[in-house]
Amino acid sequence: MYEENAALYSTVGQFFPLAIGNETKLGKAYVMPKQLKGGYEFQTMVHLDVITFLTKLTRTPFIDQFLMDSEGPEYDLLPMMGVGREFDRNGIVACQINAEIHWGHTNFKERFAAMIRGLLNDRRYGIFKVVSTSHHRTFFLNFENKKCVEKYIAQFFK
After folding, report:
1. Who's near 3: CB < 8 A, 6+ residues apart?
2. CA pair distance 13, 133, nearest whole angstrom
3. 44 and 67 share one domain
4. Under a CB-based contact definition with an 8 Å cutoff, are residues 96 and 140 in contact?
5. What is the model's pLDDT at position 56?
6. pLDDT the model gives residue 46
7. CB distance 83 to 122 below 8 Å
8. Phi and psi dihedrals of 126, rounded to 5?
9. Distance CA 27, CA 69 (A)
10. Model pTM?
11. How far apart are alpha carbons 144 and 130 in whole angstroms?
């Protein structure tokens, strides 16, 4: 799994063989190893919290596009991008977020509704495209940050 991902992603940047989540720990991650040919299994691996990853490891305070397919941790990660939350407290801006939001986790309907309601009440992100497969593929666009608006929104109103 690591070798193929390293070869693929090293063409566009540095590959980190980690699970990124809301906390740093050694824990189980739901991954798709090559030998399972599209199937998933839990594997023990290092999890690094997203704030440490972005502020210390990659030093990335401005994210043009945040791609997230995290098999469950999105319920903890997306709220961290809300107004006054962890991303704000660490000076991190995400302009566009593409997140696959998974079902089947504990209280997922209630958590999904609370998460979306919270982000919409913040009035920072708009939801532009939601595709329902067996999960919700959701696109968020940051209307609050001036640099995000200039890069990704203003061009459509000229």
Report:
1. none
2. 29
3. no
4. yes
5. 96
6. 84
7. yes
8. -105, 150
9. 17
10. 0.81
11. 20
Residues 76 and 53 in one domain: no
The residue segments making up the domain with residue 128 are 61-158
Rounded Cα distance, 47 and 14, in Å: 17
CA angle centred on 13, ends 96 and 22, rounded to 5°? 55
Alpha-carbon distances of 63 from 58, 67, 125, rounded to whole Å: 11, 10, 14
Asked which of 43, 59, 75 is the last residue of a domain, the reply is: 59
Indicate if 54 and 71 belong to the same structural domain. Answer: no
CB-CB contact of 142 with 119 (8 Å): no
Which residues of the chain are modeled with pLDDT < 50? none
So what's the pLDDT on residue 145? Answer: 98
